[in-house]
């Protein structure tokens, strides 16, 4: 645990690794802003580190609340009391979405982490729900893992399904985290390699088990309408 500045200075990191933090590094405070560690030194010198405080987290815009599960995991060993909106509930501008009560020294170092968890999670849940509502009943597949660092893409996918209302997720770990099997289409690369969308679709249909969805791309070689009709007639 990085309790004080000397602990941060003593931290050694091998640069030849993935840049993403491990769970242990997150819980230790290694991903916090340094000024929260410096503050612990200052408050400790004044014998005020464990001053009882109440921290309130609010948002500036309307959105959907998510991220509570991970915040509870982050603070599960801290002697604090947490009140929060249920995940999946909408909030209004300036509404308090979470309240934390306890000694400052028990959780202050994690302000960076818990705000990062909440801001990312709420944004993903809100965006996913907007897509689901725009689809007006058509199933929406969360397919955004390629736009995020792989260390956090499963988080986004799981939140998009659990709270955003998506019908499924393409990221294997993301789907598994919310008790689902992953769902997907096919890569353009496979169609390009086989040279024909229908040929690839027929092979896909004959090789993969029936419970795997058949969703094919129709924008590789021909007009989308023509390709869709060819696939429908073939399958």
Explain what you see.
The chain is an alpha+beta fold and 235 residues long. It is 45% helix and 11% strand. It is built from 11 helices and 7 strands. The chain has helices at residues 5-10, 23-28, 34-45, 68-74, 104-107, 111-135, 153-162, 172-177, 188-194, 197-207, 224-234; strands at residues 52-58, 63-64, 81-84, 90-91, 96-103, 141-142, 168-169. A 3-stranded antiparallel β-sheet has the order 1-5-3. A two-stranded antiparallel sheet has the order 2-4. Strand 6 (141-142), helix 7 and strand 7 (168-169) form a beta-alpha-beta unit. Helix 4 (68-74) packs antiparallel against helix 6 (111-135) and helix 10 runs parallel beside helix 11. The termini are far apart. The model has no long low-confidence stretch (mean pLDDT 95).
Provide the β-strand percentage band.
5-15%
SSE class: alpha+beta
Radius of gyration in whole Å, from Cα? 23 Å
Write down the overall mean pLDDT. 95
* Strand order across the largest sheet: 1-5-3
Shape: elongated
Overall number of strands:
7
- What is the first-to-last residue Cα distance? 58 Å
Low-pLDDT ranges? none
Helix content: 40-55%
Q: Main sheet?
A: 3 strands, antiparallel
Helix count? Answer: 11
Order of H and E elements:
HHHEEHEEEHHEHEHHHH
How would the blueprint of this fold be written?
Layout: H1 5-10, H2 23-28, H3 34-45, E1 52-58, E2 63-64, H4 68-74, E3 81-84, E4 90-91, E5 96-103, H5 104-107, H6 111-135, E6 141-142, H7 153-162, E7 168-169, H8 172-177, H9 188-194, H10 197-207, H11 224-234
Parallel strand pairs: 6-7
Antiparallel strand pairs: 1-5, 2-4, 3-5
């Amino acid at each position: 645990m990085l309790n004080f500045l000397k602990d941060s200075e003593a931290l050694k990191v091998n640069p030849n690794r993935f840049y993403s933090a491990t769970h242990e590094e997150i819980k230790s405070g290694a991903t916090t802003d340094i000024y929260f560690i410096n503050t612990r030194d200052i408050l400790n010198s004044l014998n005020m580190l464990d001053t009882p405080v109440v921290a309130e987290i609010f948002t500036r815009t309307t959105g959907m609340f998510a991220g509570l599960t991970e915040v509870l995991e982050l603070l599960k060993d801290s002697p604090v009391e947490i009140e929060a909106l249920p995940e999946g509930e909408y909030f209004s501008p300036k509404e308090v979405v979470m309240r934390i009560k306890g000694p400052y020294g028990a959780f202050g170092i994690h302000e960076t982490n818990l705000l990062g968890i909440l801001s990312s999670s709420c944004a993903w849940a809100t965006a996913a729900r907007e897509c689901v509502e725009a689809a007006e009943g058509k199933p929406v597949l969360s397919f955004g893992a390629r736009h995020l660092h792989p260390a956090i893409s499963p988080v986004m996918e799981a939140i998009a399904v659990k709270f955003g209302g998506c019908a499924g997720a393409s990221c294997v770990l993301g789907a598994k985290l919310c008790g689902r099997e992953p769902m997907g289409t096919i890569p353009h690369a496979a169609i390009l390699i086989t040279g024909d969308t229908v040929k690839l679709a027929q092979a896909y249909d004959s090789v993969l088990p029936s419970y795997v969805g058949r969703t094919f791309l129709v924008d590789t070689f021909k007009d989308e309408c023509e390709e869709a009709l060819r696939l429908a007639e073939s399958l």
